[in-house]
Specification:
This protein is mainly beta and about 130 residues long. About 15% of the residues are buried.
Amino acid sequence: MYEQLIAPFGAYDKYTFYNPASGHLMSLVPGCGACLVDLILDNQSLLDTYQTAEQLEMHKKAKSEFLLPFPNRLLDGLYTFEGKNYQFPINNKPTANAIHGFAIGEPMSLEKVELAEQKVQLVCLF
């Protein structure tokens, strides 16, 4: 069964979900874009994540952060879907792109947690 721990992570709270039987662990920081700061399966770390709250606040590489509503780059911020054009703000002026959506660093709240034997289900909201 998964266990939940909450610990300070700089100005934020870090939520950790751990299953001692499987060695699976996941930690995220909802208050800063619901960024994953740990993901371990079978006692093996899988991600290059932020190790400190200071690194997280700098958002240098968008490590394991949710990239919403799009994960890549939109040249000139333009996107067409089903014949309709959408204009997104240019948030990377040197390249004239809209990049990585707009969730990085945005405060979210952990609204729902369901712990089970084999899984953890979470709902984070802006």
